[in-house]
C-alpha cells in the first residue's frame, strides 16, 4: 500500500472512531501526500550521483534511488536541480522535500539540517598532473607552497584542502569539472575532490591526469531534510534498510560504480 493510500485509510478510520486527525505524520510526509510529489534537490554534474544526459534527462545513482523512493511512496518524482551553494537554503524554504545530492554529513551542515543514516561512505582523493607522478604520492606531499591545488567551492574538498594541505596555494571553482580541467591543462598541480568523481574523470582522461585513488578522509553521505521532522527521518532510514536488505541497493550501486556503460549517455 502506498503512503498516500495508507494515510487516507488512517484518516478515514480515525474519523469513524472520533479521533483527531491532526498531526497524522510529520510536515514533510504530509506535504508529499497532499501534493502527490517527492521534490528532490541536487546539483547535476556530480558523477555518478547526479548528471544531465545528452537528451536532457537527469540520471545517476542518487536519481535512481530517488525515483525508487517516490515509486514506493506512490507519488511523482520531481527533480529540483539547484546550485550547490544554495542547496540548503532551497531545502529550508520548502522548494524541495529533501536533499539527495551526495552531501557529506558534517557538523556545520548538521546545525542547519537533519541527516539520515549514511547511504554511502566515500572520501577525498587526488587527481594529479602527470608531471608530478612519483614526486607526489599522497596529500602530505602536496602540503607545500610550490604546489597549486584546485577544488570546488563550498565542498568537503575545499575544507579538507584548507585543513590538511594548508601550505599549498588553492584555487576554488564553481564546478568540479572546471577544477579538474585546470589539472588536465597543467594550470594546477592537483585536484582534491570526491573519490567517485576523480575515478571516473581519470578513466575518461587517461594520460591527462593521474589518480591517487586511496581516499585520505572519511566522508559519510546522507539525505538531508529540514530540522525537527523525525517522521521523515524514520521513513528515510527504514527505506534505506529495506533496499539494502532486499538487494535493490546493490543492483543500483553496481550499475553506477562498477560499470561505465552509462558514460555514453553523458558524453
UniProtKB/TrEMBL annotation:
<feature type="domain" description="Ionotropic glutamate receptor C-terminal">
    <location>
        <begin position="37"/>
        <end position="259"/>
    </location>
</feature>
<protein>
    <submittedName>
        <fullName>Transporter substrate-binding domain-containing protein</fullName>
    </submittedName>
</protein>
<dbReference type="Pfam" id="PF00497">
    <property type="entry name" value="SBP_bac_3"/>
</dbReference>
<dbReference type="InterPro" id="IPR001638">
    <property type="entry name" value="Solute-binding_3/MltF_N"/>
</dbReference>
<feature type="signal peptide">
    <location>
        <begin position="1"/>
        <end position="25"/>
    </location>
</feature>
<dbReference type="InterPro" id="IPR001320">
    <property type="entry name" value="Iontro_rcpt_C"/>
</dbReference>
<comment type="similarity">
    <text>Belongs to the bacterial solute-binding protein 3 family.</text>
</comment>
<feature type="domain" description="Solute-binding protein family 3/N-terminal">
    <location>
        <begin position="37"/>
        <end position="260"/>
    </location>
</feature>
<keyword id="KW-0732">Signal</keyword>
Amino acid at each position: 500500500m502506498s503512503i498516500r493510500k495508507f494515510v487516507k485509510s488512517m484518516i478515514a478510520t480515525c474519523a469513524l472512531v472520533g479521533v483527531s486527525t491532526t498531526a497524522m505524520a510529520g510536515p514533510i510526509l504530509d506535504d508529499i501526500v497532499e501534493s502527490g510529489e517527492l521534490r528532490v534537490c541536487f546539483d547535476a554534474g556530480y558523477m555518478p550521483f547526479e548528471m544531465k544526459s545528452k537528451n536532457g534527462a537527469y540520471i545517476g545513482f542518487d536519481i535512481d534511488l530517488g525515483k525508487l523512493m517516490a515509486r514506493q511512496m506512490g507519488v511523482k518524482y520531481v527533480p529540483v536541480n539547484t546550485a550547490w551553494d544554495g542547496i540548503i537554503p532551497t531545502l529550508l524554504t520548502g522548494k524541495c522535500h529533501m536533499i539527495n545530492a551526495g552531501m557529506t554529513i558534517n557538523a556545520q551542515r548538521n546545525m542547519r539540517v537533519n541527516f539520515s543514516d549514511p547511504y554511502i561512505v566515500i572520501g577525498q582523493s587526488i587527481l594529479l598532473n602527470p608531471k608530478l607522478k612519483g614526486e607526489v604520492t599522497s596529500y602530505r606531499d602536496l602540503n607545500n607552497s610550490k604546489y597549486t591545488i584546485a577544488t570546488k567551492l563550498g565542498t568537503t574538498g575545499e575544507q579538507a584542502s584548507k585543513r590538511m594541505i594548508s601550505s599549498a596555494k588553492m584555487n576554488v571553482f564553481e564546478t568540479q569539472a572546471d577544477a579538474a580541467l585546470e589539472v588536465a591543462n597543467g594550470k594546477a598541480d592537483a585536484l582534491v575532490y570526491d573519490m567517485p568523481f576523480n575515478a571516473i574523470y581519470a578513466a575518461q582522461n587517461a594520460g591527462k591526469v593521474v589518480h591517487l585513488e586511496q581516499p585520505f578522509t572519511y566522508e559519510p553521505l546522507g539525505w538531508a531534510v529540514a530540522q525537527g521532522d523525525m517522521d521523515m527521518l524514520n521513513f528515510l532510514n527504514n527505506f534505506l534498510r529495506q533496499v539494502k536488505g532486499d538487494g535493490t541497493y546493490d543492483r543500483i550501486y553496481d550499475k553506477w560504480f562498477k560499470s561505465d556503460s552509462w558514460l555514453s549517455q553523458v558524453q
